[in-house]
Specification:
Order of helices and strands: HHHHH
Structural class: mainly alpha
Number of strands: 0
Number of helices: 5
Helix content: over 70%
Strand content: under 5%
Distance between the termini: 37 Å
């Protein structure tokens, strides 16, 4: 009976260890950093397209249909002009942030490519368990 309990306890521990290892492997495989490392060009393209689409959506949201009576900027009411200015500021800040993110990623990626020699990369991968 004790043998059976110890065997069950060992199998339970093995299952827990495998579960933790599987969870770690899945988390590492789907992490954003790993995805960007595996697919750098696709990631850059996605960031670029996302920035373009965000700009188009924000531009569409801030644009109002033009009517013959409200074609001049002077005829806009003060609250409407303030809202337009706020949306413009938000749009520009979003575009700057997206640009900064893309440039910093590209710099990091290029630095990693030039600093890692083939020998260092192969010895580094061999050291991983």
């Amino acid at each position: 009976m004790k043998e059976l309990q110890s065997t069950i306890a060992e199998k339970e521990e093995q299952i827990r260890q495998r579960g933790h290892q599987l969870q770690h492997d899945i988390e590492a495989g789907i992490s954003p950093k790993e995805m960007v490392k595996k697919h750098p060009l696709q990631s850059t393209a996605i960031f670029f397209v996302t920035g373009l689409l965000t700009g188009k959506v924000l531009r569409h949201l801030t644009r109002r249909p033009t009517t013959p009576t409200a074609t001049k900027k002077n005829e806009l009411s003060q609250p409407q002009a303030a809202t337009d200015s706020s949306f413009s500021d938000i749009r520009m800040e979003l575009l700057r942030s997206a640009k900064d993110l893309g440039v910093s990623y590209l710099q990091h990626y290029i630095d990693g490519k030039f600093r890692t020699s083939p020998k260092a990369a192969s010895s580094h991968s061999e050291q991983k368990p």
